[in-house]
Amino acid sequence: MSSLHLVNKGNQSSDALNLCRTALALNDSVLFIQDGCYNVLPGELEVLIEAFPEVTFHVLEPDLRARGLLNRRHPSVIMVDYNGFVELTEQHNPVLSWY
Amino acid sequence: MAAEDLRRRILFILTRPPYGSSLASEALDAALVAGVFDQDVSLLYMGEGLFQLLDQQHPELLQTRNHAKASRVLPEYDINQVYVHDLSMNSRGLSPADFVLPVEVLTQQDIKNLVAQQNAVLNF
Hints:
The complex is a heterodimer. Chain A has helices at residues 16-23, 42-51, 61-66, 82-91, and strands at 4-7, 29-32, 56-60, 78-80, 95-98. Chain A is of the alpha/beta class. In chain A, strands 4-3-2-1-5 form a five-stranded parallel β-sheet. Chain A starts with a strand and ends with a strand. The relative contact order of chain A is 0.26. By secondary structure, chain B is an alpha/beta fold. Chain B is 27% helix and 19% strand. Chain B contains four helices and five strands. Chain B has helices at residues 23-36, 67-71, 86-90, 108-116; strands at residues 9-14, 40-45, 81-85, 104-106, 120-123.
């Protein structure tokens, strides 16, 4: 089973995303939550997609919407609600929190 | 239930320096507890977490407990899988000789493989 990586910080304020990239493997999934939403701006996410074309990137919609980023997201990011968050944790193991 | 059924592979990833927050200390406590309960425990130090392992720390100057000394008891709890990330180490000018414990140096690819083998991963 592939891993799920939760990232809750932007890459300017924390080393979380950088360390996540080190452990991120083919076919893993990433879910951006809280301030991790800033990583799905087009310029930021494009870099990740180029480096990890097989990884799927998700973002928690309420956290994205709360920050005024709903219409500023990269078009490839998959939006999930809280139920979707739970489903992702069911579909992956282990789950890693980068914060 | 046989003891083997309860044995899980648990990886602790330590990314914080030792004294700025309680995370380093909490991670060590949690890993030792898992060791006591006979779990298959491994530790991976990444980023500034590597500073936890530096020798010649003098935390008595901060009136706090010596994290390096505390880390040194890991083998007594049968925790012998201690890993460090090569780039995190090299970029800080560190080498295994600077650490209070014997460590195994892992590449990025080694780390991806290590994570994939775990039942649980706890990041501190």
